[in-house]
Amino acid sequence: MAGKDTLALRGHHLGCVLSAFAEESDHPTVPRAVAWLRANPQGSVRVIVGPDDICLPCPKWDGETCLKGFEEKNAGKDGRFLELLGMNDGDALAARELFARLMSRADAAFFLSVCPGCSPDSCAEAARGEVPF
Predict the structure, then answer these.
(1) How many domains does the chain have?
(2) In this structure, is residue 112 part of a structural domain?
(3) Is residue 30 part of a domain?
(4) Contact at 8 Å (CB) between 13 and 36?
(5) Which of 55, 62, 104, 107 has its CA 20 to 30 A from that of 17?
């Protein structure tokens, strides 16, 4: 991610990254995205369906799919985030604008419906505050 003008994030990784500002993530590559956003608050974030700048360097990514076996489910989550944000696959926004939009539109019910097996309460709590970068 170093030296990049644009960060590519899967739709559902927006929640993961947002909550990682409030509490440390156990995902091996989410902290890199958090660091990029802190260093580039006006940088561009391209929201996508599919592997992103968190997936690609992750040791659980084998070059084609997530070894955790959630790729099809994750693509569906990505689409739900894009729909909430009023965006299409590959659209980009300034990082602060994107996260402000997410935080103004996503509530606890949204996170619970999209990511019930993860940490929806952490994402919902993080979405209640100010943009953290």
Answers:
(1) 1
(2) yes
(3) yes
(4) no
(5) 62
Task: Give the model's pLDDT for residue 4.
Answer: 84
Question: What are the average pLDDT values for consecutive 10-residue runs of the chain, which has 133 residues?
Answer: 84 97 92 96 96 95 89 94 98 97 98 94 95 96
- Domain around 53: 6-127
Query: How far, in Å, CA of 11 to CA of 8, rounded?
Result: 10
pLDDT of residue 68: 87
In a domain, 132, yes or no: no
pLDDT score recorded for residue 2: 54
**61 found inside a domain:** yes
Locate 97 and state its tokens.
């604008």
Residue 92 parent element (H or E): strand 92-94
Tokens of 92: 């980009």
Q: How far is Cα 67 from Cα 61, in angstroms, rounded to an integer? A: 6
